[in-house]
Amino acid sequence: MTRATVPVALGDRSYDIHIGPTVLAEAGALMAPLLRRKHTIIVTDETVAGLHLETLTASLDRAGIGHEAIVLPPGEGTKSVDQLAALLDRIFAIGIERGSTLTALGGGVIGDLVGFAAAIALRGIDFIQIPTTLLAQVDSSVGGKTGINVAAGKNLVGAFHQPRMVLADTTVLDTLPVRELRAGYAEIVKYGAIDDFPFFEWLETHGADLLDGDVAARIHAVKVSCEAKARIVAEDERESGRRALLNFGHTFGHALESATGYGSRLLHGEGVSIGMVMAFDLSARLGLCDGQDAARFARHLGELGLPTGPSSVPGVAWSARDLVGRMATDKKVKDGKLTFILARGIGSAFQTQDVDPADLTAVLEEAIAA
Description:
This protein has 2 domains: 4-175, Rossmann fold (3-Layer(aba) Sandwich); 178-369, Dehydroquinate synthase-like - alpha domain (Dehydroquinate synthase-like, alpha domain). Helices cover 47% and strands 17% of the residues. It has 13 helices and 11 strands. It has helices spanning 27-31, 46-62, 81-94, 108-120, 134-140, 178-195, 197-212, 215-235, 250-259, 268-285, 291-303, 320-327, 357-369; strands spanning 4-8, 15-20, 39-45, 66-72, 101-106, 126-131, 145-150, 153-160, 166-169, 340-343, 349-352. The strands form 4 sheets. The chain has a 4-stranded parallel beta sheet with strand order 4-3-5-6. The protein has a 3-stranded mixed beta sheet with strand order 1-2-9, with helices on one face. A two-stranded antiparallel ribbon has the order 7-8. Helix 9 (250-259) packs across helix 12, helix 10 (268-285) runs antiparallel to helix 11 and helix 12 (320-327) packs across helix 13 (357-369).
């Protein structure tokens, strides 16, 4: 397999995800039919600009598409109110109209920020996602969730705004540090955990190949992950039901990220990795799944170098009480009660609010002490 296309079926807002090793070089030709103006504003960060901006602009030039670029600082801190305001000022200074298109070239931070800017500029303009991290290719670039972080928590301010297209070039993954690849892999394993046990079994065999650079394995994993997310988004675009399963591990993970200040000590995918292990441990404690399933899942993550407990994160004085407090600000709180995605086994996740706080605290304390 050298190329794959995954459709996201949302009526007149449907779009395609193009996956393969030459997608970035072909971006101009792929984008041209969708642009209402033969011009786009590219938003990227300093790291990605140095690696991939020239390839994208050359492709746009070949397609006769005009372009200007805005380069932002890298890192989670860019997903802020201040950076959003500054970005909008720069976009309006360049000049946009309702037919304009923004292009997000970067990882999840850039994709979320640019998507939100597109959602609110002129009350909504088009944008295209070109995710350059594994995590963004299989998760954040697909489905239309956009937003920024605020002091109260991660992604608490945002909007649902679907892209016109997603271009996932698997070649750009070769430029990622192994830690970033592993963080993205956590979101891939998530799809096996929530409703695809055969995919989890495939990952047990081929996950190491994917991380080592096997092109076919990468394309297959990105394709299967995007197909899974596309199915769920088509069924539940605004997360009123089934889409909540995609948050498996995230209630725990976001609390861990918040406690570390959204910095480099804990990447998002690493937080999700630990969070999924905690979700399985809580499920086993409640008698919902076999403890062997929980152990098998954690073992796979650990074998591929992902963190499986808070003790993996250096320099943090963890507190179960503090983490519970941080969970209380999560978007998924309903009627004052925490919502969890738990599992009856690998490949069988479900949503519940029926968790005794004492059991939650016990799982957190055990994880911190491990």
